[in-house]
Amino acid sequence: MVVNLPTELLRSFVAIVDSGTMLRATERVFLTQSALSLQMKRLEETVQAPLFHREGRRLVLTPVGENFLVHAREILASNDRAVAALTGDALIGAARVGLVQDFAETLLSGVLSRFNALNPESQLQVRVGGSHELIELLKADRLDVVLCMGAADDPRAISISPTVWFGSETHLEADVLPLAILEEPCRFREAALGALEAAGRPFRVVLETPSLSVLRAAVESGLALSCRTPAFAPDLLVPADANLPDLPPVAFVSQTRASPHPAIEKLADLLRHAVLTLGPYASAPPVGEVELVA
Known about the structure:
By secondary structure, the protein is of the alpha/beta class. It has helices at about 5-20, 20-30, 35-45, 65-85, 100-105, 110-120, 130-140, 185-200, 210-220, 260-280, and strands at about 50-55, 60, 95-100, 120-130, 145-150, 155-160, 165, 175-180, 205-210, 225-230, 250-255. The protein has three domains: about 5-85, Winged helix-like DNA-binding domain superfamily/Winged helix DNA-binding domain (Arc Repressor Mutant, subunit A, Orthogonal Bundle), CATH 1.10.10; about 95-160 and about 250-290, Periplasmic binding protein-like II (D-Maltodextrin-Binding Protein, domain 2, 3-Layer(aba) Sandwich), CATH 3.40.190; about 165-250, Periplasmic binding protein-like II (D-Maltodextrin-Binding Protein, domain 2).
């Protein structure tokens, strides 16, 4: 009797092996841990052999599982080649994008919303977070494309932006500067605190938040000073000749997972183009000039 191997079970099986744990695999196959466990039970019943065994809390492949893994990868590769031949470069499956908050506000309503509309078979998944977190998720194969901030000498930089001060000029003569910053880790937080400490300028942190919109509200309300790239709040730029220390520039950094799907490569190029059109003083990218095809 011929046994048919469901590709969704094979994909989950490979995801568990590649992710290292069942919990991490849930983020790759968009299933709960209990559903993933049931899938592995079904797969073992189908092949009539145990594929994993436990060593403490770890799942380890059995000898049968190690042998089966080779065939599972071959079947999935053949399946994906067949689908690509029929659909061209259209993406069927997950498109996992990581953005820092600075880019999310404009790109979510621009490139990403249009990509989602033009690729209805894809499953767009966007993670907004800090640069360090996003890079770690990319390394763990939990994201496909990342746009974040880095040092000005980062070899992956696609653009360099100055870092500038924002806030009400009434604070400039204060004996102790009121400061609003994001929670750690944050490159701009480090830049502000380091520059003020090096200059011997007294300050106090009046607001610490994980939210860029809350940080902007604090600056716009006159509560405190902060620093970011010029696109953060162009109308609230502190004059360049103000008595505040200079800040190091930052890089806009783009990274893509190894061997991405052609549609992911195209999405990464479109995102990079959108970031470049931001310019150091623009408030939003002219995404309408970007050709976004399915």
